[in-house]
Amino acid sequence: MSTQHDMPRRESLQSYSLRVDDVHVWVVDLKPSTSSVAALTETLSDDERGRAARFHFDRHRRRFVVRRAALRALLGRYTDRPASGLRFLCAPRGKPELSACTNPRTIHFNSSHSHELCIIAVTQTGPIGVDVEYLHPMPEAEDIARRHFSATEIRDLMAVSSAERERAFFNCWTRKEAYVKAVGDGLSVPLDSFDVTLMPEDPPRMRAHGLEGGMPAWSLFNLALHDQYVAAMALEYPAPRISVQRFYSDHAIEEN
Fold it and tell me: Which of the listed CATH numbers 3.40.50.720, 3.90.470.20, 2.170.190.11, 2.60.40.10 matches domain 5-124+239-254?
C-alpha cells in the first residue's frame, strides 16, 4: 500500500466525497482581502459572530472568522448540508464534532491554525488529529522540552545540531499534539507519557506509550505545506490516501 500526498491545488467545491481510505487536508490562508473577511463574517452563526466580536485585536478576529467560515463551507459540502445549518458540539472530552443530525456520513474532522495558516483534515476512516506550527526562533525550546517531552525525546532533541533543533522541536510538538487531538483527551494525556520520533532523518511514528492499556495502532504523518510551517497528522489507519488541497475564501462566500 502506498500513501498519496499531492501538492496543494485549486479545487471546486461543487461535489466532494470520500472513499473509506481517503484523508483530505485543506490549507487555508487566513489573510484574505478586507472585503472577503466582511462577507465571510456573514456566513457564520450568531454565536460565532459573537465570539468574533470579543477578540481585542483585529488580526485575531480575522483569523477566527476565516477559519470558521472555511470549516463550515467544507463540511457542508462533505455532508450535503447547508453550511449555515451545520451544528457543532463538543464530545465528552472536549473534541469538536458535528451533531449527528447534520453528519449523516459520519465525517470525522480536525483543524489547527498558527500565524496566518489553518489546516482542516476530513476523513471517514475514524478519529483524526492535526497540528500546525509556524516555524520561528524558539530560545525557550529546551526549557519547554524539559517540561513536556519524554526523557527519550529530550535526549534526541539535544543530539540534533543547533541549526536543525528548532525544526526538530516542532516535529516533536506537532506530532504529540496531533495524537492528543486525535484521541480527544486534551490535557488528560500528559505529553511526556508517550514518545514520538523527531530527528530530521527519522519518519514520523509513535515509539512508546506509558498510558494504561498500551499503545493503539496510531499512525503519524508529516504534512509538507510551506517552508515556514511544520505540520503533522495522527489517525488510526496505517496507509491512507492523503490529498492536500488549497482552500480559497471565495468558496466559503459562494456556499452561503
Answer: 3.90.470.20
* Strand ranges for the chain from DSSP E: 5-6, 22-29, 88-90, 96-98, 108-114, 117-123, 128-134, 194-196, 206-209, 219-222, 229-235, 241-247
Residue intervals in the chain for CATH 3.90.470.20: 5-124+239-254, 132-235
Mean pLDDT of 159-163: 93
C-alpha to C-alpha distances, 208 to 94, 158, 159, 176, 203, nearest whole angstrom: 25, 19, 19, 12, 15
CA 227 to chain centroid: 17
The reported pTM is 0.89
Cell 443530525, residue?
101
Residue of 188 and 33 predicted with greater confidence: 33
- Class of domain 132-235 (CATH, top level): alpha beta
**pLDDT value at residue 1:** 34
**Shortest CA distance to 191 belongs to which of 205, 211, 212?**
211
Average pLDDT (167-193) is 89
Confidence of residue 251 (pLDDT cuts 50, 70, 90): low
